[in-house]
Design brief:
single chain, six-stranded parallel sheet, alpha/beta, 40% helix, Rossmann fold, 12 strands, 11 helices
Length: 363
């Protein structure tokens, strides 16, 4: 069975927004999924630039259709970031005319949070549900959500955590420090809790775009670093998995979304070697607790209390667990396992179909 992947690529960005998709492309390529690139070659505004983009999309999708062979496996990553001329038509044609099997890696389910463009994301979700033969989803909670939407449980593979490919030395251990790192989009319109960090008796190290809090006694802002460089500076303390409007609990569209998704910053922190604090109702709280790589909290006010009790020896023990996990993340083991599991399910399905056809033909 031949394997292909649709690889949507665009200009590099100085945050981890595209890191997860790029890592999936790299891992899948190593596993024999031939990449067929859909390129955003023009990010400029204006009607002529928009026409140029759509013409490039049109050419790329026609090329993808010509290259993909009948009865092959095609890996997709959802949601697609941009409307693309002829995309849906080509994907439907591949399914009908070439009988391909679509495997969809789910990155986000916008139905579970409110961030704008609701109509676009609703359509993207419905189209994915229409064409996907198998899904790779974040965790068991997200799997259960898709089951309630009518997707077959037997065709859903759980990832557990996103990988974070890196060439860092996983044997270099972080320093013991009672401080918290927050990396990612620092826009207080998205994560209102950031504005209340000065209320906490704790030191915070912040990295990322859209910072607007100015100088405070307990916050050190160190600017924006690209995804491949930021692991090099995460060398001490703890990472934080938290979102929403409040420091007392995770709420609002982004806060509630933690109940379902695998935050990519969790992969960043753990791949960099540092343990985490995570909201206890987050979907990934179970993963953190199971692997002994951090602490579950109800409120950010608990962090200073817990850190006061953590000794350097205890920190080193947790860091050992993180190191074991870090080696898996930087080598892409979780997505590799998920893809292998999915290919196994497809092979078994094809085998059973062949046996059924032979029995029917023998009648």
């Amino acid at each position: 069975m031949e394997k292909f992947q649709i690889a949507e690529i665009s200009g590099k960005q100085a945050h981890a927004g595209t890191k997860a998709t790029e890592d999936v492309i790299t891992i899948a390529k190593k596993m024999g999924f031939k990449p067929l690139y859909i390129q955003m070659n023009d990010l400029n505004p204006g009607i002529l630039h928009k026409l140029n983009r759509q013409f490039q999309f049109y050419k790329d999708w026609l090329n993808a259709y010509s290259k993909i062979t009948p009865k092959s496996v095609v890996l997709l990553q959802h949601p697609f970031h941009y409307p693309q001329l002829t995309r849906e038509k080509i994907l439907l044609k591949l399914k009908k005319k070439k009988n391909v099997c679509f495997v969809s890696v789910v990155h986000d389910v916008e139905e579970l949070r409110t961030i704008g463009k609701e109509n676009y994301h609703k359509h993207e979700f419905e189209f994915m549900m229409q064409i996907a033969d198998f899904l790779i989803v974040h965790n068991n909670v997200m799997r259960d959500f898709f089951i309630t939407k009518g997707f077959s449980k037997e065709k859903i593979v759980v990832l557990e955590i996103f990988d974070y490919l890196s060439d860092r030395n996983a044997n270099v251990l972080p320093m013991f420090e009672k401080s918290i790192t927050i990396a990612g989009n620092l826009d207080v319109k998205k994560s209102g809790y950031l504005a209340d960090l000065p209320k906490l008796n704790c030191k915070f190290n912040l990295y990322g775009p859209n910072y607007s809090l100015g100088e405070t006694d307990n916050i050190i802002y160190s600017g924006v670093l690209p995804p491949d460089q930021i692991p090099d500076v995460l060398t001490k303390g703890f990472g934080l998995i938290w979102d929403g409007d409040s420091i007392e609990t995770c709420k609002g569209g982004f806060g509630d979304y933690l109940r379902y998704n695998n935050p990519h910053k969790l992969s960043l922190y753990l791949s960099s070697g540092i343990p985490v604090f995570i909201w206890k109702n987050a979907a990934e709280a179970y993963f953190v607790e199971k692997n002994g790589v951090g602490y579950l909290i109800d409120s950010l006010f608990q962090i200073p209390e817990i850190m006061e009790r953590i000794s350097e020896n205890e920190y080193k023990e947790v860091v050992k667990n993180v190191r074991n996990l870090s080696m898996k993340l930087i080598n892409g083991e979780y997505m590799t396992q998920a893809l292998n599991t999915t290919i196994g399910l497809i092979s078994n399905e094809n085998k059973n179909e062949t046996i059924t056809n032979k029995k029917n033909s023998g009648k």
